[in-house]
Amino acid sequence: MDTWLVVGLGNPGPEYAGNRHNVGAMAIEELAARDATGGSGGRASFKAHKARARVAEVRLRVPGPKVVLAVPSTYMNVSGGPVAGLLKYYDVPIERLIVLHDELDIEPGLVRLKQGGGEGGHNGLRSISQSVGSKDYLRVRLGIGRPPGRQDPADFVLKDFSKAERTDLLPFLLDDAADAVEALIEVGLLDAQQRFHAPR
Fold this sequence. Notes:
By secondary structure, the protein is an alpha/beta fold. It has helices at residues 23-32, 80-90, 123-132, 153-157, 163-168, 170-187, 189-197, and strands at residues 4-8, 47-49, 53-58, 67-72, 97-103, 111-115, 138-143. The chain has a single domain, classed as 3-Layer(aba) Sandwich (Rossmann fold). The chain is built from seven helices and seven strands. It has a seven-stranded mixed beta sheet, with helices on both faces. Strand 2 and strand 3 (53-58) form a beta hairpin. The protein is globular, with a radius of gyration of 16 Å.
């Protein structure tokens, strides 16, 4: 079966781990917990890859395609090099690349799916598009909303989720993000969009 590459964006290091900007990387951890092949208590373990990323090879369904979960070990704005390296290493075409990332222009807690299009000022996406030579990859866009008042969006995304958000929003957002990745792989973009874009 065809291999998929699923990449969660974020910045490396413990000081960034809880940032809103790292929600894509957080969602990869949720997917790792769904590894259907057993592993260590069901959770896939990550290993350092020469493409400058942490990777785990999983199956989200058995039978099902191999899914390479990856978090670049570089800073967000140079995510493209690791992604291009992993695509080449695993021989994955661009249409089977899924990128999970934070999205200011989507209401907090909502998940939206698309393929291609612009990067909306997101430096991680811009780096990937430049490095892989295409914008036609799948995106799982995780809504974090706009900053309150006049707070600079660049500062907002580099702040941790609030205590209330970590309790009332984040677990559901990460669960939906993982569900969205599974849906993209199993039923394709249009059916997945109908499911996740429908009013709840």
